Every structure is written in C-alpha cells, then in structure tokens.
Amino acid sequence: MMNLSPIVASLLVVILPFLAFLIQAMLGRRSQQGTISLLAILLSCLISATMVFPKIWNQDTQHQALTWFSIGTKDFQIGFLLNNLTSLMQLIVCLVALPVHIYSRAYMKGDPGIHRYWMYLSLFCFAMLLLTMADNLLLMYIAWELVGFASYLLIGFWFHKESAVQANKKAFIINRIGDLGFLLGIASLYSIYGTLNLVDLFGEHGFLNTVPPDSSGWMTFAGCCFFLGAMAKSAQFPLHVWLPDAMEGPTSVSSLIHAATMVAAGVFLLSTVFPLFNTTVLLIIAIIGCITAFIAAYFALAQQDIKRILAFSTISQLGFMMVAIGIGAWDAAMFHLVTHAFFKCLLFLAAGAIIHEMAHLKAKHQLDFDPQDIHNMGGLRKYMPKTFILMAIASLALAGFPLTSGFLSKDAILINALEWGMQQGGLWLLIPIALIIVSFMTAFYIGRLMFKVFFGKLRINVENPGIHEAPGQMLGPMVFLGICSLFVVFSLNPLSYQQAFVLKGFEFDRDYTELHILHTVVPLLMSIGSILIWIWAYRWYAQGEAGGSFDKLRMTESKLRMTFPLLQLSLNQGYLNEFYQKAFVNSTVQFSNGLYWFDRHIIDGLVNLAGSLVRAISRISAWTDRYIVDGLVNTIAGSTYYLGHLLRWVQNGRLQNYLGFAFTVLLIGIIYLIFK
Amino acid sequence: MITLTHFLVVSACLFCIGLYAVLAKRNAIMILVGIEFIINAAILNLVAFGRYDKINYGGQVFALFAIVLAAAAVAVGLAIILNVYRKYKSINPDNITDLRD
Amino acid sequence: MELVLFYAFAVLAIGSALLVVSLKNTARALFLFFVVLFGMAGLFLFALADFVAITQIMVYVGGVLILMIFAFMLSNKELLADLQNTSSRFLSMPNWQSLLLTLGFLAVMIYGIIEWQQHTPNWITQNIHKGQVILPSDNNINQLGIKFMTHYLLPFEVISIFLLMALIGAAHLSRKEDKQ
Hints:
Chain B: It comes from Sphingobacterium tenebrionis. Chain B: It is found in: Cell membrane; Membrane. The complex is a heterotrimer. Chain A is mostly helical. Chain A is built from 25 helices and two strands. Among the domains of chain A are: about 280-570, no CATH class; about 580-670. Chain A has helices at about 5-25, 35-55, 85-105, 115-135, 135-155, 160-195, 200, 215-235, 240-245, 250-260, 260-270, 280-300, 305-325, 330-365, 380-385, 385-400, 405-425, 430-455, 470-485, 500-505, 515-545, 550-565, 565-570, 575-650, 655-675, and strands at about 60-70, 75-80. Chain A starts with 5 loop residues before the first helix and ends with a helix. In chain B, helix 1 (about 5-25) packs antiparallel against helix 2 (about 30-50) and helix 2 packs antiparallel against helix 3. The mean pLDDT of chain B is about 85. By secondary structure, chain C is an all-alpha fold. Chain C has two domains: about 1-95, Four Helix Bundle (Hemerythrin (Met), subunit A) (Up-down Bundle); about 120-180, no CATH class. Chain C contains eight helices and no strands. Chain C has helices at about 1-20, 25-45, 50-75, 80-85, 95-115, 120-130, 140-150, 155-175. Chains in contact: A-B, A-C, B-C. At the B-C interface, helix 1, helix 2 and helix 3 of B face helix 1, helix 2, helix 3, helix 5 and helix 6 of C.
C-alpha cells in the first residue's frame, strides 16, 4: 500500500464518500446496488485504519491549513486537525458506517428510491467525516449543517409517508434551534478571541492558551450556546423530541444516526471545545444530561415500538455522556461514545432484521399489525438464534454487564461521577445516584425488550410463520459489531476501565481526587443490580402471566397502566410532544392566526383603503385625461385630420378641379388687386 | 357707332361661358369646345382693338395667327382625346384620375 | 340699325354658347357650336375685320368643327344611346362651383371694363386723332397680304411650320397602334 501522510490520507478519507455521493447523484437510477458508496466507505475505512489512526494515536498532533478567504485583515483558514480525538472519531465513523453500508445492501434491496438512499448515505458520511476533521469552527459548522441536512433527507427518505415527512420536518426545525446556538457560540467566540481556528484557540494539545480577563460572562454565554447546539444534535432534554420520531427513516439509517454520526456530533463538539467551558456551563451540562438520562430511561420503560425503545435508550446514554462532560470527564464521555456506537448500531441492525422478518410475515399472511410493536413479537429466539445471540450481546453491553464494552465505559462514567459528587458533596451527590438508578432502569427496559421479543411464543397466531435468520449480508456486519461490543477490543482487562486504550489516549489531570474504593464497589454493585433486574424482568415477561398471548399481554399492560399512571406517562413520553404541541405549535398557530387576522383586517384594510383612494384618484385623473387632455389632443388631431382630408380631396386627380382651383386663386388674386 | 365696350362685354361673356364649359363639362370634346370659346373671345378682342391700328394691322394679323393656332390646338387636342379614349374607353375626365395622390 | 344688328349677332352668339354648355346631348351641342362660330364671324364684321370673319368660317366651320364631329363620332360609344335618349332632362344641371367661379370672373371683367372706360389708352386716342383707324371703305385684304409678306413675314413662316408640326403631331398621335 502507498505510504501517505496522515493529512493527505484523511483528506482522502473525507473526499471519497463525497465523490461517491457525486457519482451516485450523476448515475441516478442506474446505480441500485450502491457499490460505489460501499467501495468509497470501505476505502475510507481502510485508509483511516491503516494510515491515519495508527500514525496519530498517542503521537504528535498534525495540523495543516491553507487560507480560505479573508475578511478585512482577518484570514479564515481551512484545514485538517489530526489528534487523538479527531482520529479516533474518524475511525469510529468509518467503522460504524461500513457495516451499515453492507447491511443496507440487503436491507434496502428493492426499494424504489434506493439510488437516492445511497446518495444520501454517502453525503451523510462525508458530512460527518468532515465534521470530525475540521480544524476550525466555521468549517465544523458547515459540516454540522450538512449532517443536519443529510439526516433530514434520510429521515424523510420514505417521503410518501406522512409521518416520515412530519418527522423530518421536526428534526430539521429542532436542529435549527441548536444550529442557532452553535452559530451564536461561534460568533461570541470570535468576538472574544478573534479566531475560530481550534489550534489557535486551544493550543496543540487542546488547552485554552489565553483567557482574556473579565470575559467570564461572555464565556458562560458562549459555552451555553455551544451546549445548545449539542443539545439539539445529541437530543438532550428538552430538545430530544425529534429523535424518537426520526425512527420513521429506514432502520439502517436510524442505526447510523444513533450510533456514530448525528447524535455523536454533539458530544464530539463538546469534547472539542471542552476547555472553553467554565464551572457554570459544566454544571448546566451535567444537570441537563442527568435529567435527559433519567427521563429518557423512564420513557423507554413502557414504549411498545421496538425502535422507539432503542431511541430512548440512545437519548438516555447520550445523557450519560453529557453528565460525563459536565463533570469534566470528557474522556469517559468519548469512551462511552465509542462503545455505545458499536453496541447501539448492533441493536438497531438486529432490530432492523427483526422488523424485516415481521414485515415479511405481515405481507405473507396479509395480516394487519404493526411490525415494530414488540407485543406482536415473541419467541423469536427459535427462529433467529444468531440474531438473538448478537442482540443479547448488545443488550448486555447496554445494560453494563461485565465482559462487555458497555460495562467499561459506563463504569468509567459512574465512577467519575461518584468521585466528582463526593468532592462536591451535598446535593450534587444526587447526580451520580440518579445515574445509578438510570443504569438499573436501562437494564430493566432492555431486558423487557429482549424477553418480549425473543422469549415466550409468537403472539401472532399463524401456522408456519416462516420467520428465518437474516441473510448473510445483514448478519455479517452484525457479527462484526458484536465483536466490537466485547471488552477485548478496548481493554485487555475486562473489569478495569482504566486499562482501556481510549481512556489512556485522553489522559489529563482531573479536578477531583480518585477514590480507589469506588473502582471495586461500583462495578460490583452495578453488575449484581443489573443481574437481579434481568432476572426480575425475565420472571415478569418471559415466564409470568405477561408471557402469554397477545391479548393477555396487552390487557396486563393496560391494567398496569391503569394502576400506575406513571407508566401511562412513560408510554406517552411524558406528554412532552403534546406539551410542545400545545405550548409552542398551538400558540404559534394562534399567534399566527392573530397576526393573520391583524394582517387581514387592519393592514389589508389600510392597504385596501389606500388602494381604493388611489383608485378613486386614478378615476378622476383618468376622466380628466380622457375628456380634457385627450379631448384637446383629439380635437387638434381631428381638426388636423379633417383639414388634411380636405386638402387631400383637392388632390383628386381631376384636371378640371385643378383648373378650377387655379382659376379660383386667380380670381381671388384679382379681387385682391382690385380692392387693395 | 359700336364702341369698344360692346365688344369687350360680349367677349367677356363668351370667355366666361367657355370657362364654364372647361370647368364643368363632363366630356373632353366639350372641354375643347370651351377652349375654342375662350380663343374666340380673345380673337374678338384682338379684332376690336385692331380697328384702331391701321398702320400695322396688328389686331387682324394676330387674329389670323390665333385662328391658325387654335386649329392646330384642336387637331392635337383631338388626337390626345382619341388616345385617351383608346386607353380608358372613356372621354369623361372624371374617370381619368391618374394624377391623384 | 348697325347697333341692332350687332346686338342680334351678340345675342345669337352668347345665347347659342349658353345652350352649348347647357345641353346634355353632345351632338346637338356640337351643331350649336356652328351657330356660335357664325355669330362670332358676324361680330368680327362689325369690327371691320372681314378677312378674319371669312377665315373664321373657313377654318373653324370647315376644319375644326368637322374634325370635332369626326372625333366625337369615333370616340363616343354612347352616341347612339345619346341620340335615342328621350330623357325629360333637356338641360344638364349646372355645376354650382364652376358657375360661381365663372360668374365671379364675369363680374371682375365687367368691373374691369367699366373701370377701363374712364381712361382710354393713349395709342387709341392718338390714332383716332391722326385718323389712323380702319374705315369700312378700306381694302383690308390687300393690306393684310402686303403686311404678311413684308412686316409679318417671319411670324408667318414660323406659324406655317408650326401648323405643319402640329398637324404631323396630331396625325402621329391618332394613328393606330402597331400590332405588336
């Protein structure tokens, strides 16, 4: 293989998907297989894994930039920054995108708009890779917008579905709020430092080199703005509502959005600009993250749609990452981001396989049921054993069981949070405690999902359901992701997160003291708690009365909901959507109606009044013009015409007339001479 | 004794009749006749004045010249009328309006 | 007696002329033209121009008029219709514009003649005084012949050539077109 410098190599990594996008766009319908996109991402992946990541990881930062454009005396640069963070992120994006591409070939086969799908997917990868490599905030912002746009296209991929259109609109609008925050952040940062270059801002190793005095207010504002941007992108409460709706897109897209690209962008952004945040901002981040984690886990408890459960779990895990950033352990956040990327991607792909089969079942027997509703599933373990195993690995990772990658990263966050909470003392301890509770809830809802889907027996009563294992093209990527969800990929020691290479790459001094006791107690506690919860969930869902038929299950759940209104709240996502509908949409609509009325009756009235006035004046003027001015002109013209006509008549070609005229003139002349 | 005035008045009347014929008649030959009237009126004047010029006999000589000229004019005029008739199949000057704009 | 005859000739000439311009029938008008010319010849006699009167009758009646009638016969295809036309309208309607103009001229001329009567030209009074006026007893034809051959020789020759030219021209104009 050629030996390219990391900068050139990463340029290639970024450019390849873009070229694929262009080629796909040009080929249009002729390219159904997506070979070009796949090839591009495969090459990107290889280049990233062989020529960028090994040369950058734990080695010198590389930075290269050229002047992009100048405004006045200020130069704006465009360039790539390669350090541990960006190279890791690049690799993760490639590694997650590759299986998704392979998986899509089978999953999206036969879709009428598949050529668009590949196009959008390549665009999405390009935007995300550009985002990771950008060396200045302006370029990052452009990539950020591109990511949002590509996700908009992908969520609304099935645009003939009304719900998909609504969902992508929602995603777009909410992302707009975040983008505004990001832009304000950039602007205020520029006004403080006069540069947007990350190297100039934070130094080669990611530290703020100069903090101007008396700018703490500005800094807080800028930090909050950046966080607002991340909130929208990474679906933090209260801007998380778009993510569950984004499930309207193809499942493979959901996996890509959730695992490595879209939602990770927010966390990545915060990690990048981490040195910027002062204590106030960090506290806000931690609190919001905590609330998000808790609320999303709570919502996930009673959801019935398999993809929605996973969506809320994503939001919850993102809340974890936010808390980690908030407490200053952004390394832990990145670590969790990486591990989460793999197992969440796997979860989605497996869910996609299941939905695929359920949809097949539905089409085959012409039944009418929701193929995504977990109440309709059950006992799938028998039909899809490999999928079951893979999904079990991913679920365990999500729940934080030992030997999985999730165990390491989640423990890293929890322990860091506890240490931080101990340091702060008092009420701040609530945050780690809440996180622990959320972990248990996570274990419960993912357990519920697993047991409902794979245990018991199929709740659709058909002979010979014909459900079988997903094809190899789908299974292969899932196996790869399953392996990546295990501890060995990150750390040789399955129990201690501190050995993880990702964390070692981000070594830095923390503000709080390390408590060794926690490193043994917390994992132990978490493991035991999770196992207990899984056993409980198993008894509840797989064996208990809820394990029976569909109707019985539904009845039980509705009975439960009647008894516990909290569950009803959870199912309806805390009525947040309804609240938004009432508070923002309806009020906006009403306000618009008011404005419409105002416009209609007052402004239009004024305009119409002015209009009628002008019309009246015009009428008078027209009358004047027609009868006075025109009359005058017409009179002159008419008389000229008649005179001309008269004189013309003289020239009638009759010799006698000519003679007569001549004699007339002669007579007149003589008379004149006589009477002179 | 017939005075000069008598001749002049008669000649004026004849001239005016000729003029009327030239202006009003709708027949080319009658127009020619009108011209002859006018010429005759002139000849009458010449003759009448010529009575007072015994030395040169100017009046009568020029009257004779005028008669000859009138004859020539009539000959040419009639030739023209014939040609016009051949071309337009009409000798009504109202129908011949090629001079019209 | 002389005055009465003069008036008779004058009335004959003017009346016939008026009829000539008023008649609808061209053929009749042309024959009335004879009468006018005769009347004029008579009037010339009163001006003591006997040779001119003879010439008038010879040239006009013998030449011009015959020529006119000949041309009229050749050209007027409505001749038969005219001759058969027993229309109630014997006279043509006068054209009022022309009539007005003509009357205007007549008025101006009469006015001019009346104005002129007050001062007779010098040469007339001188000639009357010297007795250089033509008298009825004079032999005009002799005198005219002498004058033509002496005093007016050049105009005489010119006019004869002119007459020839005019006649040739007329003949040329009225000849039949070659069939081409």
